[in-house]
Amino acid sequence: MLNLSSIAVVVSDAKTSARWYQDKLGLEVRSREGHWITVSSKGSSVVLHLCEGNALESGNSGICFMSKDVAKDQKALEAKGVRFTQPTTKEAWGTSASFADPDGNEYWIYEE
């Protein structure tokens, strides 16, 4: 079962945006990694991924799910007819895959 993990929001300045989400909406900063910052409601496991830049890659919805076993979930989803745009890939930073909905919106799966 996939669990919703994060939703990417493209922002012009991640630090300024993080302060706005903290000061105006009461969200807390969860992590700071290079060009992005994550914020979330207290107690929530879902984060907004404030990604500094101009735009997400074409087709990328900015939505990420977590999985205990990406390769296993890829096989199960493909058996249901889900089309993967990036197969399960292991990198130094972790394991991921991406799939598309019928309209071409892409979603990420990262391994916990």
Keywords:
50% strand; alpha+beta; 2,3-Dihydroxybiphenyl 1,2-Dioxygenase, domain 1; eight-stranded mixed β-sheet; 112 residues; 2 helices
Molecular structure report:
With 112 residues, this protein is α+β, with helices and mostly antiparallel strands. The chain has two domains: 7-55, 2,3-Dihydroxybiphenyl 1,2-Dioxygenase, domain 1, CATH 3.10.180; 59-112, 2,3-Dihydroxybiphenyl 1,2-Dioxygenase, domain 1 (Roll), CATH 3.10.180.10. It is 20% helix and 50% strand. The protein has two helices and eight strands, in the order E-H-E-E-E-E-H-E-E-E. The chain has helices spanning 14-25, 70-79; strands spanning 3-11, 28-33, 36-40, 47-52, 60-67, 83-91, 94-100, 106-111. Strands 2-3-4-1-5-8-7-6 form an eight-stranded mixed β-sheet. Strand 6 (83-91) and strand 7 form a beta hairpin. It is elongated, with a radius of gyration of 15 Å. The two termini are 12 Å apart.
